[in-house]
């Protein structure tokens, strides 16, 4: 009598329905994971744009306050000349003011170049060079003091802050203890000194279309004319 031999066990395969269910579950998990990653990436990019916008405004204000803090006006002028080499002229233009002044804020970027620390700066708002529908804040530097009109003198100009809505400047008259909307050291009715401090308000369009406003003050140690 022969012994009974056990039947070999065959491996059980997945059915088509089981494979389809597994693929569907995997697809749902992948879709959910992709949506989460996409949301996180989008939020990160928006946060970076907001931070970049605030950084641009903050750097512009820091540069302007630095320039103003080193402003000066000298008594050593040739009165026969039509223009003045040194001046401080703040013009009220509604919500987009302009400021032109002589300052010691020039930085020599090339070794042994024939340039001094003094320069003439113009801070104003104008159409953006890449998008004429927007207004940008410009910094223009003539690099050398001269008896020519600073607006007509050759210089370098670049955008400091984009999409500007307001650029308002006020000036503190120390002897009169009052704020003024304009200031000039070159007109017939001008004062013989500079403001001791300047208040600046810069409003720009934020990344969400809202208005971002930063206000600061710059002090001028050399607010009396230099002899």
Polypeptide structure, described:
This protein has 227 residues and is of the alpha+beta class. The protein has one domain. It is 24% helix and 29% strand. The chain is built from one helix and ten strands, in the order αββββββββββ. It has one helix spanning 16-69; strands at 88-91, 98-103, 119-127, 135-141, 156-161, 164-173, 178-180, 183-184, 197-205, 211-219. The strands form two sheets. The protein has a six-stranded antiparallel beta sheet, with helices on one face. A hairpin with a 6-residue loop joins strand 1 and strand 2. The longest helix has 54 residues, at 16-69. The protein is elongated, with a radius of gyration of 32 Å. The termini are far apart. The mean pLDDT is 85.
Using the alpha-carbon principal axes, give the shape. elongated
- Roughly what percent helix? 10-25%
What is Rg?
Answer: 32 Å
Distance between the ends: 132 Å
Average pLDDT for all residues: 85
* Overall strand count: 10
Largest sheet: 6 strands, antiparallel
Helix and strand pattern: HEEEEEEEEEE
Whole-number total of structural domains: 1
Structural class: alpha+beta
Range of strand content: 25-35%
Sheet with the most strands: spatial strand order: 5-4-3-2-1-8
Low-confidence stretches: none
Number of separate helices: 1
